[in-house]
Amino acid sequence: MMATSVLRRFLMPSVRMPISASATKTVLGPQSIRRNFSATPTSFATYNQVAKGCRGSQRARKAVSPALRDVNAPELKGVCLKVGITSPKKPNSGQRKTARVRLRGRSQDCPGVRYHLVRGAMDLGGVGNRVTSRSKYGTKKPKKAAA
Questions:
Q1: Torsion region of 122: left, alpha or beta (phi above 0 gives left; psi -120 to 50 gives alpha)
Q2: Burial letters 120-137, b for 16+ CB under 10 A, else e
Q3: In the CATH scheme, what is the homologous superfamily, with its name and number, of domain 66-137?
Q4: Predicted pLDDT of residue 85
Q5: Residue 107: what pLDDT?
Q6: Torsional sign, CA 112, 99, 117, 125
Q7: How far is CA 78 from the centre of its chain?
Q8: Phi and psi at residue 45, in whole multiples of 5°?
Q9: Four-residue CA torsion sign, 87, 88, 94, 100
Q10: Which Pfam family would be a valid example here (predicted)?
């Protein structure tokens, strides 16, 4: 009787009411209720999957910006030591603009794709002779020629 009333509350939206914690624990455990209404059954690893190493620990995620990870300061101020262009490792290709930056605390890092530098701020200069989209490239507004 108790089990049918619990199921009726789940299945009929018009009668859906909160279930008291004591009624749930006596009839069915919370884990079994969740599994009864799941679309996919629980699956265990097969012998071949275990042999291939499915139970090994997962790889740690690669940090987006390793030098800035520990200090919790994504906009950390630094000094540009060197600006240049490098090409990425295989199989990627292209010209990647890089800057060697000395961050606070004398930790040095070479920002590549994973860092964003603000052009025209601090000692990193803006793009010269820029007319459109100047704010993105840190270029000052050109002065009007005296007539």
A1: left
A2: beeebebeeebeeebeee
A3: Nucleic acid-binding proteins (2.40.50.140)
A4: 93
A5: 40
A6: negative
A7: 23
A8: -70, 135
A9: negative
A10: Ribosom_S12_S23
User: What single-letter amino acid sits at 23?
Assistant: A
Neighbours of 78 (CB within 10 A): 22
Residue pair 27/2 in contact (Cβ under 8 Å)? The answer is: yes
pLDDT digits (tens, 9 = 90+) for 59-96: 888 776 676 777 776 667 777 888 899 999 999 999 99
Q: What is the spatial distance between Cα 92 and Cα 113, in angstroms, rounded to a whole number?
A: 12
Instruction: Tell me: pLDDT of 105 over 60.
Output: no
DSSP the chain: -HHHHHHHHHH-GGG--PPPHHHHHHHS-HHHHHHHT-SS---PPPHHHHHHTTTSPPPPPPPSSHHHHTTT-TT--EEEEEEEEE-PPTT--S-EEEEEEEEGGG-EE---TT----TTSTTS---TT--SSHHHHTPPPPPPPP-
Q: Do 123 and 102 contact (CB within 8 A), yes or no? A: no
